Amino acid sequence: MRARVGFGLFLALGLVVAAGLVLFVSPRASSEPDGLEKVAEDEGFIEGAEDHALADTPTADYAVKGVDDEALSTGLSGLIGITITFAAAGALFFAVRRTGGRSRPDGAPPTSSDSSRDGAAA
Questions:
Q1: How far apart are CA 37 and CA 50, in angstroms?
Q2: Whole-model pTM?
Q3: Does 111 have pLDDT greater than 70?
Q4: Spatial distance between the Cα atoms of 67 and 63, rounded to a whole number of angstroms
Q5: For 70-121, what is the HEC assignment?
Q6: What does the pLDDT read at residue 89?
Q7: Quick check: 79 and 25 in contact, CB under 8 A?
Q8: Mean per-residue pLDDT of the chain
């Protein structure tokens, strides 16, 4: 017999796993440059690089400004990132769910009056 796991429990467990990874695993990741930064160092054009436009934001460069402990700063930065991502994904999910993914017969996107009409009929 298969056990059924509710969507809320599945979502909560996913968040706990993601939070655990960002708090306890990500601070132990290598701080050595990789990818394009490593290639730029190896090939000698790193001096031409400029900071990103968001380099002065509170969570730039995988750290939280004002937190001196590097591991804690990295973990908090990740926690802020998954919180923002979860909120954005949740907002998108509920927006799509509200429209029901339905379109009008004339091909136009559904409007708010369509959903209130559907609610009145149900």
A1: 12
A2: 0.66
A3: no
A4: 8
A5: HHHHHHHHHHHHHHHHHHHHHHHHHHHHHHCCCCCCCCCCCCHHHHHHHHHH
A6: 93
A7: no
A8: 84
pLDDT in tens, 73-100: 999 999 999 999 999 999 998 899 888 7
Spatial contact of 94 and 106, defined as CB atoms under 8 Å apart: no
Number of Cα atoms under 13 Å in the Cβ half of residue 66? 4
Please say if the pLDDT value at position 64 is more than 70: yes
- Distance, in Å, from the CA atom of 69 to the CA atom of 76, rounded to the nearest integer, reads 10
- Encoded amino acid at 63, one letter: A
What the block records as the tokens of 15 is 């968040």
- Residue 106 confidence (pLDDT) above 80: no
Q: What is the C-alpha separation between 19 and 13, in angstroms, rounded?
A: 10
